[in-house]
Amino acid sequence: MSIEQADSSTLAFEEKVLEVIVQSALTNVDGVLSLEGKLFAADQTEPLAAQTDFDKGVTLEREKNQVTVDLAIVVEFGKDFTGIFSEIKRIVSEEIQRMTNLEVVEVNVHIADITTKDEYKKISSESNNEAAEVEK
User: Which family, according to UniProt (predicted)?
Assistant: First the structure.
């Protein structure tokens, strides 16, 4: 992806850069537990850009200087889905605009699942334990 300047200079970046921006923004939205297939670990130590599955739950379409973002997320049970949707639209649009100067024309959110915070912590803990076993 690239942005052309009036003086014919170009700023280019990979699509995964936008996906990492989106993922990072979503970690700040109360009630979003994960992207579909990608848990947000509370004690995450690996840099977002170094992860191999950063794109799970994020689909981007870009045309010139405009971006459409499609998300599949897991939400905490009992939270206000419409409030979460509004916050996702706001923060994703702001962060992409701020970092890339691209206009986000659409943010579509599909709630793929809901779970309690306790169940999420249990799943996250099990996932981290399995990853530690594989590394040994």
Answer: Belongs to the asp23 family.
Give me the residue label for tokens 């690996």. 46
Distance CA 66, CA 9 (A): 19
Which domain, by its residues, includes 36? Answer: 2-44+52-135
Tokens representing residue 71 in the block:
């998300």
CA angle 40, 116, 90 (to 5 degrees): 55
Spatial separation of the C-alpha atoms in residues 9 and 76, rounded to whole Å: 45
* pLDDT, tens only, 37-59: 655 544 443 444 444 454 578 99
CATH code, 116: 3.30.70.1350
The pTM of the full predicted model, rounded to 2 decimals, is 0.76
Tell me how many domains the chain contains: 1
- Whether the CB-CB separation of 14 and 5 falls below 8 Å is answered with no
Number of neighbours of residue 68 by Cβ within 10 angstroms: 14
